[in-house]
Amino acid sequence: MSQTLQVQFCGILLENPCLLSSASPTQSYEGIANALKLGWAGVVTKTCAPDHLITADVTNRFATLRDSAGNITGFENIEGLTQKPVAYWEITIRDLKREFPDKCIIASIMADEDRESWQDLARRMEKAGADALELNLSCPHFRLENNMGATIGKDETMAAAITACVKAAVRIPVVVKLTPNASNIQDIAQAVVAAGADAIAAINTVQILMGVDIDTFEPLPAVNGHTSFGGYSGVAIKPIGLRCVAQIALATDVPVSGIGGIAHWQDIVEYFAVGASCVQICTAVMLNGYQIITPLLAGLEEYMNRKGLRNLGEIIGATLPKIEARERLSMDWRRRSTVIAPEKCVRCAKCYVSCHESGKGAIRFVDRRVTVDPTLCDGCSLCTHVCPQGVLALH
Ligand SMILES: Cc1cc2nc3c(=O)[nH]c(=O)nc-3n(C[C@H](O)[C@H](O)[C@H](O)COP(=O)(O)O)c2cc1C
Ligand code: SF4
Ligand code: SF4
Question: What's the ipTM?
Fold first, then answer.
């Protein structure tokens, strides 16, 4: 059986499903070239905008949320777009395509309501040799008052109008990058597809406020004591990305590039299962470097061997038929919490407290051993999640 990591994304052959998303890791020719040499199938360049719309970047522009082991689970940025002029990206894209003709170079662009600015940028990137365009209709913090980024991406009419005007200007595929902050991402997806979008990328970051310094009451990340609502990324947003990709795949028939919280090869499989045809990655690279591509590809190959897959295309959307309205889920399928590894119990009583205060009061300690009363347990599963030792499971 010949197995391949190659995938097709809106008519472009990718040597593997992994692209660097438009962000800091794709802000320069040198960085992109290094990443491509290490094995990334392609990149979406850092979003460029008409030169007069570029603003300086702020410090500090990142904030993080960590789990109790110290791992960064959530990452906020209030970074702007590229600091480089459009001419830089024309040269960079031209040079990258010359040096790496088989890699996929997608140019990310953003402008304001001025349609001609969008068309001008689109034509310049196409002329430079970009394989496709990605329209950034989704940044949650850059020049929102100027009707840029997510302001467009949350409005069906504006999003469709920008998509249509760019489509009219170029022949290369147009990918539209959507925001999870839209109240109904399916409506936006259908509107841009009706306007001609060849593919959708989702998601951009989730708008958040990371926190507050409780001594100074300064919001975080503080820029001279002030902040903006910023964009959340990293592993914490993967469930939001999966939800959005699934909803888009269910509502449209164009390819979807899945983004959000991908750090391991398993995440890529999950995105494919909910409808993605390729993936894009940012935060995991910002935290661990371009070289994460090696374990990502090795893990995917091993998985495909184990599953007997010739091509990742075989699993695109495999999970979609299993997503239903809650009311259509089986009310007869019953499981109960069961003690599966009593020897691992450290008698911390977390399960007891959770079950008695938020469950059905089914957990007891009999002769200092944890037990579940099956006549009281209704299988909510709370105890299986709070147990730190893996003692309990639903059966
Ligand atoms: C520091 C930073 C800068 C970003 N800049 C851009 C950008 O210029 N254009 C864009 O479309 N998305 C931008 N993004 C969003 C990412 O491309 C990506 O959609 C998001 O971070 C979710 O993916 P992740 O969880 O793998 O980081 C940026 C994200 C971060 C963290
Ligand atoms: S599954 Fe729910 S009800 Fe059953 S023992 Fe656990 S917490 Fe209690
Ligand atoms: S939470 Fe787990 S380890 Fe703690 S008492 Fe319950 S079963 Fe034992």
Answer: 0.97
